[in-house]
Amino acid sequence: MDLHPDAVSDVIAGPNGGVRYHDTGRPGDFRSTVLLIHGTGGTTKSHFGTLFPMLAARHRVIGVDLAVPDGGVEVGDLVNDVVAVLEARAAGEPVALVGYSLGAVVAAAVAADHAPLLSSLTLVAGWMRTDSQQRLRNTVWRKLFERDQEALREYMTFTSYGSPFLASRTDAEVRALVDARELAASLPATMDLNRRIDISAEVGRIVTPTLVVGAVDDQMAPIRHSRLLFGAIDDARFAEVATGHAVTVENPAYLFKLVDDFVSAPSAVPPGTVLEPITV
Amino acid sequence: MTRTKHDDDADGVTEVDVLIVGAGFGGIGMGATLARRGRRSFVILERAAEVGGTWWYNTYPGAACDVPSHLYSFSFRLKPDWSRIFATQPEILEYLRETAREEGLLDHISFETEMRQAHWNAAESVWDVDTSAGRYRARTLVSAVGHLSEPRLPSIEGVETFEDTKFHSARWNHDADLEGKQIGIIGSGATAIQVVPELAKVASRLVVFQRSAPYITPRPDRAYTDAEKRMFARLPETMREEREGFFWANEGRYAQRRGTPSLVKAAADVALAHLRRQVDDPEIARKLTPDYTFGCKRVLKSDDYYPTFNRPNVLLETDPIARVTPRGIETASGTEHDLDALVLCTGFEATDLPIAHQIFGVGGVSLSERWSGGMQAYATMAVPEFPNLWIINGPNTGLGHNSAVYVAESQMAYIAEALDYLDESGLDELEVTEAAEETFMQMLEDTARGTVWLDGSCRSWYVDQRNGRLTTLWPDFAHSFRAVNGSFDPRPYQVDQLALP
Ligand SMILES: Cc1cc2nc3c(=O)[nH]c(=O)nc-3n(C[C@H](O)[C@H](O)[C@H](O)COP(=O)(O)OP(=O)(O)OC[C@H]3O[C@@H](n4cnc5c(N)ncnc54)[C@H](O)[C@@H]3O)c2cc1C
To answer: Do A53 and B254 touch (CB under 8 A)?
Structure first.
């Protein structure tokens, strides 16, 4: 795995089968641990290809590749996978959990019931309960998936990136983004799960210091969801990034700065704070 | 210039609170920062007849910045009407002139004044400064002489014997008639790639002597439309978004320099594809292919350098230069190139700064003696035994991936806060401790470990060849430069005689 020269990849047995993880940890590395959970249709590599090495310069980093069986999956299954990796790789040492998109849903659910495993929680472009705008997109997705996968790849590119990001690229560069998109075998089952997300009850139980990051031009988990998470979690701070849903690709450096500052001192900024944008 | 604001005592010594040396981005920015904070007692010494520094000296054809102008400018003076993404030298120089004028700095600048020597006067806690235009006494000395301002001349046998036109790119001879001439260019770095396409248009024959091929990536330059310029003026937040977009994209690229093979390879592939797309002859393309790890030396940007080598009047010479003769250049394998003009694009003295030989601290020790093992400073600005001296754009400030102005502005904020602290505390001087400098350098060394610069695959000005340490480069993100060095904290200084707040 070429994520990072120090990353070792392996599979552990989870409750629903094997779970792949990537871990830069090695004996004698006493740096704090950050655990990354990717989003729908992604992997540690495809969603965190840049963020992972950025974080690895300062922290031990573990990435979990969520396993989604064809037969369908529930949030609880994904929570069990993450907990299995935490217990196998970082037992007795609270980690900074960072979830992106569906990974944020999973991270929030982990935090609700496993607070002692965590030192902090970062929810990037996440959501709590799927709403009708998201279900309409999900419906279009399903129809394109069944009828026209080429159009589907274009549609997914259109909805994942922010409009300023796409507009500032040449047609050839946009084409390359479309062509590079792979439709993971797990996608239909994951999209089915996305239609039905409701973790409102779990979110109310979160006591871990939390950073909620919402993306201004997000069309997939629009920023109102992040604002709502900020309202729902007692010990939460809020930051915005000027990107679409694909924040980890559009502006990994800005996200890195937010995450690195937060996980290094989760309670330095009091709950309820809206972080000032970083000016240059 | 007027000196009315400063005390000129009987011996002809001008007393001033802050003396700044250099009127480039660093000195002009420092002056503007002081003026904006209400400080009036400062003088800027500039040996040239004009402000601008780098952008005053480098007038070669094709001179332009390679960090987008909306980012390569002061945060406190955004300019809605930059004509292009990457402005050329005249526009950047005009921006600095306008800044000096509108920030009210012209009365504070002494032009054609060279700082010769500065001595720390421990009895009175002041700097005694000797210049080509009189003496100064200042509580605080700020060196803003830049790190790329002293032309480096190549140590090639016979270079002084060349009889025809010869000059360094930063001292361009605009009187020389190059039209239809046989021109040789020594060098293939940041300057050469801007000069070569321009000279190829006028030369009858252009020979480019290359020692090491750089990585070159596309340069997405274009003119801004009138609509965009007025949008930036009317909606300044759109201009800020433009600036910030460039900044964070550069920060994202920084990860490519950290030595993660997949990212380094992806970035190198972009450069190599650019080369293959733009150069017709596979043999020339091979010679233009770098032989070291991507990012180890400065990565350059150009869309018109490579295509220049498709021209019939341009020759790429990779055979090492044996000697310069009165008539031209002879290579190691004996080829003789007859030349009418020789242009030296051989870069700058980056590791041994001339100013270090002119500043003498506690006990009369010069900065260059202190730095005999390589330059270093606490927070990139403060040196033990040199109280009340601050260095802008000195050791460990080069970025290689983002704007030098952002770095310098971080330092200016730090220095301004230090001056406030000096006033408020009633102290006479601020001298950083040896221990603080050592800890800081250790932190930098830890940060640099595992980066491509130290992997030894190339010889670059980032590394001081005397000690193998990274003395010019900041080995981390630009934003971390500001986080680490952007605000003053008195604790690392010898202030224990005072109760700290
Ligand atoms: C061709 C070129 C292109 C560049 N492009 C970029 C870019 O795109 N982006 C980027 O970030 N950086 C770029 N740089 C780096 C550039 O040097 C810095 O960005 C910046 O201009 C440095 O400003 P400075 O004020 O520190 O130094 P300088 O601009 O070098 O100014 C120093 C001044 O000090 C004066 N001086 C020196 N010694 C004395 C003395 N003893 N007494 C009196 N005066 C003295 C000099 O005359 C000079 O005017 C470029 C550099 C070059 C050479």
So the answer is: no
Taking only the tens place, the pLDDT of each residue in A11-29 is: 999 877 899 999 999 888 8
Interchain proximity A280–B71, CB inside 8 Å: yes
Q: What is the pLDDT of residues A107-122, one digit of tens each?
A: 999 999 999 999 999 9
- Residue A116 belongs to domain with CATH number: 3.40.50.1820
**Radius of gyration of chain A measured on its C-alpha atoms:** 18
Q: Which residues line ligand 1 (CB under 6 A)?
A: B 21-27, 45-48, 53-54, 58, 63, 65-67, 72, 114-115, 144-146, 148-149, 191, 355, 392-393, 403-404
pLDDT of A98 over the 60 cut: yes
Task: Determine what percent of chain A is predicted with pLDDT higher than 90.
Answer: 89
Longest dimension (CA), chain A: 53
Record: contact A168-B477, CB cut-off 8 A? no
Give the residue on B whose Cα is nearest the Cα of A277.
B244
Q: Do residues A42 and A177 both lie within one domain?
A: no
Residue B97 contacts A where some CB pair is shorter than 8 Å: no
Does the pLDDT value for residue B1 go beyond 50? no
Chain A contact for B262, CB < 8 A?
yes
pLDDT of B500 higher than 60: no
Between A5, A252, A257, which is nearest B260 by CB?
A5
* Domain B159-214+253-344 of CATH type 3.50.50.60: yes
**Residue A232 corresponds to which tokens in the numbers above?**
């729902």
Q: Which is nearest to A216 in space by CA: A245, A238, A236?
A: A245
Cα separation, A102 vs A84, whole angstroms: 18
Superfamily of domain B7-150+349-485: FAD/NAD(P)-binding domain (3.50.50.60)
Model confidence at B18: pLDDT above 80? yes
B159-214+253-344 and B7-150+349-485 share a CATH fold: yes
- Averaged pLDDT of chain B: 92
A21-68 pLDDT tens trace: 999 998 888 899 999 999 999 999 999 999 999 999 999 999 999 988
Residue-range domain boundaries for chain B? 7-150+349-485, 159-214+253-344
Helix, strand and coil content of chain A, in percent to the nearest 5, comes to 45, 20, 35
Least Cα distance to B24 among B67, B72, B71 occurs for B72
Q: Across the interface, do B261 and A2 touch by the CB < 8 Å criterion? A: yes
| Pairwise pLDDT comparison (B197 vs B9), residue with the higher score | B197
C-alpha B396/C-alpha B399 separation (Å) is 8
Span from the CA of B53 to the centroid of ligand 1 (angstroms): 5
- Is the ipTM here above 0.90? yes
Two structure tokens written together for A169: 């690229």
Eight-state DSSP code of residue B160: G
A213's tokens: 């990051």
Whether pLDDT at A87 is above 80: yes
